[in-house]
Amino acid sequence: MRWTLLLSLTLCIFLGSCKKEGSGNATEIVLGEYASMTGDTATFGQSSHKGLVLAIEQVNNSGGLLGKKIKLITEDDQSNQDQANAAVQKLIDDGTYKQILTTWGIADGAITDPVINGATS
After folding, report:
1. What is the mean pLDDT of each run of 10 residues along the chain (121 residues)?
2. Model pLDDT, residue 76
3. What are 18's strand-pairing partners?
4. What is the pLDDT of residue 15?
5. Phi then psi for 70, rounded to 5 degrees?
6. pLDDT at 120
7. For residues 74 and 34, is the Cβ–Cβ distance under 8 A?
8. Of 37, 72, 86, 117, whose CA is between 20 and 30 Å from 111?
9. In whole angstroms, what is the distance from residue 72 CA to residue 90 CA?
10. Separation of alpha carbons 116 and 100, rounded Å
């Protein structure tokens, strides 16, 4: 299970990004996450977020990823399509994230694809 989480996290970091330039500093990799922390789907969003935090803690406690610690910044999409788009846009505008993740999956991803694709064009 631990190796699956590590592999998943590694693939997320290296298989594309919303920003082409690097992020964080020389000792950290900064990930942005948007999740339903409140609202109708908060139970799932919070559970998924806790799993992501646990996986990141395990990676960081074992020396990090390629010697770098992973830092997670989370935005609440409030289980709302407009707020999901706003959360993604906020993460993109910040400009420090190598990767933006969602804990909800395809539903939120499909909703926010136009925002993300606009940032990478």
Report:
1. 51 43 68 89 89 92 91 90 88 78 58 62 52
2. 93
3. none
4. 39
5. -100, 130
6. 55
7. yes
8. 72
9. 14
10. 9
CA angle 26, 103, 63 (to 5 degrees): 35
Domains delineated in the chain: 24-120 (3.40.50.2300)
SS (H, E, C) 1-38: CHHHHHHHHHHHHHCCCCCCCCCCCCCEEEEEEEECCC
Tokens found for residue 3: 């190796």
Residue-wise burial string across 88-112, b where 16 or more C-beta atoms lie within 10 A, e elsewhere: bbebbeeeebbbbbbbbeeebeebb
Rounded Cα gap, residues 100 and 81, in angstroms? 16
